[in-house]
Each structure stands twice: as C-alpha cells, then as structure tokens.
Amino acid sequence: MNNESLLYTLAxxxxxxxxxxxxxxxxQYCGSAEAVFKEKENNLQAINGIGKNVIxxxxxxxxxxxxxxxxxxxxxxxxxxxxxxxxDYPQRLKNCIxxxxxxxxxxxxxxxxxxxxxxxGTRNISPQGKRICEKIIEELSVLNPIVxxxxxxxTDISAHKAAIDNNLQTVACLAHGMNxxxxxxxxxxxxxxxxxxxxxxxxxSSSNPDRENFIKRNRIIAGLSEAILVIESAEKGGSLVTxxxxxxxxxxxxxxxxxxxxxxxxxxxxxxxxxxxQLISSAADIIYYLNWEVKQKQxxxxxxxxxTDLNSTEEKIIAFLRNKEKVGLDEIAFSCQLPIFSxxxxxxxxxxxxxxRPHAGKQFELIA
Length: 368
Prior knowledge:
By secondary structure, the chain is of the alpha/beta class. It is built from 18 helices and 12 strands. A 9-stranded mixed sheet has the order 1-2-6-5-4-3-7-8-9, sandwiched between helices. Helix 10 links the parallel strand 5 and strand 6. Helix 8 packs parallel to helix 9. The termini are far apart.
C-alpha cells in the first residue's frame, strides 16, 4: 500500500461516526478510500445508512494532518500495515464483517497455512490454571500452532511465554498504539515475542489502553483464530466477551471446567453449562474437536511427548476392546459406562499412542 492510499485510508479510519463496517460500505460503493473523500455529497447521501453526521465528519480538514503524522510514525518505527483488501491481510479476520480496515503489526508474523488458537482468561490466573495452560500448549506444540493472546497479566502472558518456551509463533493483540506497551512490566518480553511472532493492533500511536479499546481488541483475538480456549474466568470478564464474539464468528470455543466454589471457575463453568463452550481437559480434546490432522511423524512425537501412561478410562477402553474386532463409539461408551465426550477424547489419546486404529463410521479396534 503506497503512502497516498494509506493517507486516505488512515483518514477514513480516523473519521468520527464511521466504524469498520461503514468504512467498508463506503469503500465498496466509491471504489477506494480516496474516492470516498472526493465523492459528491448527494451520492453519499444515497448510500443506505450514510447520513448528515457521517458526511459532516468526512469534511473534517484535520483528518489528513493527523494521518500524515501517523504515516511518519509508521515509517520511523518500521511498522507494517495490512489493508483489509490485501492478500496478506489475515484471511479469517477478513471474513469478519467488523474486522479492521487497517491493521498495524511488527515482528515476524506469518499466519498463512497455520493452525491458530487464541488463549484467554483471567488476569488473576491460579497456579493450577497456569500449569494447565502451559501443559496444553506444550502438548499442542507437536502440531506447531500459532498462539494468540492479549499480552495482559495472568493468562495472556502465561500463554505467550509457554508458546515461546515451545518454539511456537505467538501473536500479541494490543489495545493501544505501537508507541507504548501495556502493562509496562511486560516490556521485557517484547523482543522474545517479536522474534517468535509479533504484535498486532488497529490503534494509532495516539491511542491509550482505555477500557473500550480492550473490548474492541477482543474481536481481533477472536477473529484471527480457529478456536478460543478460556482457561479461567470470573462470572464477568473480558475473556467471556471474547468467547461471545468467537461464537458470533462461528469459531469453536473451549473452556476448562473448575470447582463450583472457585471464583475464577464461575465464568468457564457457565460457558460450558450454557453450551457456549465445549468442555476440554487436555490438548487431545482440542485436536479432536478441531479435527487437526496428526501426521505420522507428529504421531511419533506425540507418543513420546504428549501421552506417557494410561489413565483409568483408557485402561478400561483397552480392556473392553481386547479380543474384539471393530466396535462403534456408542457401544464402547455404553459398555464402559462412560460419557460420549470422555470416550471420544480417550479414543483420540489411544490413537495418538498408536494403541488403537480408527475406521469409518466411528469404529475402532485394538492394534495387535
């Protein structure tokens, strides 16, 4: 995107009374951001939803000076820009009606042909929640996914650090401009994140980490990924907003269950109870629900890294399948007196261990 096109697009992004949906509508009608500002007033009024307030906002002469200043900041700080019609713009976010018309990013981000999962949760993550977060990312690492989060305290930074520890690409979505980092205590992680992925924001250098910006930021976290995993959450919180947005985008939402009396399990338990999230307890559940392909080479890694010992459920299934030919999922669950979701998860674990073989029609048999 050349500087002239960027100038007009930045000006449109900054225009009051115009959000991303309206901006896209104007660009589609007029042909470009530049054409929007040069279009006749009568023609603009003919566009559905474009009223006098929008037209008056487009006539603000200060917009272009502000845009020029932002271009200087972008060039001086080696910031890359994605325009929503560019081929490099994140494809999943491009399919979201309210995705930003411009995204600014730094680092070494490559979102193409990759599994992407967003991990969110409370800023007051418990030691157990942190341990589970780290374990799931370690288990998923054999599939080389990108881990997306918001660089905040608690769950976010735990997810980023675990991704880095497992040599995974990680993307931090910011609720402010690239001229600062919030929280300041996480500045020490910036270099590692940029080496292993990078930062993304839709906000200008003049934007501060205001409350409303975090809400807007959450739709980017949801839109970038295939699925959202909520580690822990109180009854209300930003991670639940992200989960709602993800559901509206038809993304898979997963949640870790917790004890009923734990304040930071109320939100995740409610997501599961209201069927807004799938209950998961391991990386194997995520792999199963998303139907991520485990290639033979990865399967060998999984056997040594992901699963070491059989748990009681897996032992029960193995005992049932012994000396039997192909058996269906429902029959296995009924005979072993197990819930379907638990049986499915355990069967995937056993498949990854190389102990059972799946067949068409959800049939399984023990490998001799």
